[in-house]
From TrEMBL:
Taxonomic source organism: Aurantimonas manganoxydans (strain ATCC BAA-1229 / DSM 21871 / SI85-9A1)
Pfam family, one: SGL
SUPFAM superfamilies given in the database record: Calcium-dependent phosphotriesterase
Single Gene Ontology MF annotation: hydrolase activity
Keyword Hydrolase in annotation: yes
Ranges for domain SMP-30/Gluconolactonase/LRE-like region: 92-354
Protein name: Putative gluconolactonase
PROSITE patterns attached to this UniProt entry: TAT
Sites where the protein binds a divalent metal cation: 94, 239, 293
Length: 370
């Protein structure tokens, strides 16, 4: 009998075994042959075909996932929408990016060395790329091309319209990059800013073990010349990042707490010359436990920060007002690594959370295309 996934609600009993109050089942040869053919056909189909299952136990509205810490967050909360577990089966899900044309989100399953595709229309999750070089963060540029940060090769690559990957960055001043983590694109000239904390170089589980040759840094790739510029190395573990809605501020999560006796922080800079320079470094927010990873901004300038390893009731998404005040949370059952706004109106939050992906509709709207 096929194995049933742990997270399935499918009710299973062996053929011929009676349930209390029932007569034993009789198996007819024709039914057995028909059932066997059907089973064979099902097993031959892609694994995204889902078993018939009972609907999940509904939650009482408003869903317990919402937590309002400041009245300003109330306007983004929807009282009659649930936190939904869309899929489970990753080892460490990361780097979601929304493709509005295809109506899908790509995300990475780093230890399994693959990229996955969540389809908004069907809800199906299917493999997009095997042997993704342990990719982490993904984004799309303003021509619809996918940009990925690879751990095991320590590269930033771009998938062109025909498919093959083009290497955009792999060395700086003759030294190999650490392990690029996450990236954003500036709309005015297509320049790319990415972080390079080196997580994919610390263990084979997420990349290739090697000594870091460069300081942990933030870089800029010039879209026209391909020139690579270091923007800052004054951050312990530069992780997720996002622009403010007007592209004048860059927010970067510093997950220092994973390797340094420092709390996790979000650092902000002023963006100069379309991202070729960063000025006015300042601390935007500090996290008492756990760390922030992926970041996204909404159209009102709030920063939505994926949060993990903070414990039950704190893991999920922390939301900060433009002045740095934490105004609300969306709690997830698993630690949350990254997030993106999806859908036609970018009002649905998709979260990569450890082994699963979750979604929840909000009254916010994501500020940027990916």
């Amino acid at each position: 009998m096929p194995a049933v996934p742990r997270n399935s609600n499918t009710v299973v009993r062996r053929v011929g075994m009676p349930v209390d109050g029932e007569e034993p089942m009789t198996i007819h040869r024709r039914a057995l042959l028909t059932g066997g053919a059907a089973l064979g056909a099902a097993l031959a189909m892609p694994h995204v075909v889902r078993a018939q299952s009972l609907a999940p136990q509904p939650s009482r509205y408003p869903d317990d996932a919402w937590e309002v810490l400041d009245p300003r967050f109330s306007q983004y909360m929807i009282g009659n929408t649930p936190l939904q577990r869309e899929w489970s089966g990753a080892l460490w899900a990361e780097g979601p990016a929304w493709n509005g044309v295809g109506r899908y989100a790509v995300f990475s399953d780093i230890p399994n060395n693959r990229q996955m595709r969540w389809d908004e229309v069907t809800g199906a999750v299917t493999p997009l790329r095997h042997h993704s070089n342990h990719s982490n963060g993904n984004t799309f540029d303003f021509e619809g091309r996918q940009i990925s940060c690879e751990h095991s090769t320590a590269r930033v690559v771009r998938y062109g319209h025909q498919g093959p990957a083009e290497v955009l960055a792999e060395t700086f001043e003759g030294k190999q990059l650490n392990a690029p983590n996450d990236a954003v694109v500036h709309p005015d000239d297509g320049g790319i800013i990415f972080t390079d904390p080196g997580y994919g170089s610390h263990w084979y589980y997420e990349g290739t073990v090697r000594e870091l040759e460069l300081p942990t840094s933030i870089y800029h790739i010039d879209a026209a010349s391909g020139a690579l510029t270091r923007l800052s190395d004054e951050i312990f573990k530069p992780n997720g990042l996002c622009f403010s809605p007007d592209y004048r501020t860059l927010y970067v999560a510093d997950s220092a707490a994973t390797h340094h006796p420092e709390p996790a922080r979000i650092i902000a800079w002023n963006v100069e010359d379309n991202g070729r320079r960063l000025t006015g470094r300042r601390e935007f927010a500090t996290l008492e436990s756990g760390f922030h990873d992926g970041l996204r901004a909404d159209v009102d300038g709030n920063v939505w920060a994926a949060t993990g390893f903070a414990g039950e009731g704190q893991d999920g998404v922390h939301v900060y007002a433009p002045d740095g005040t934490k105004i609300g949370q969306i709690k997830t059952p698993e630690g949350c690594a990254n997030l993106t706004f999806v859908g036609e109106h970018r009002n649905r939050l998709l979260m990569t959370a450890s082994q699963s992906i979750y979604s929840i509709f909000t009254a916010a709207q994501g500020a940027h295309i990916a």
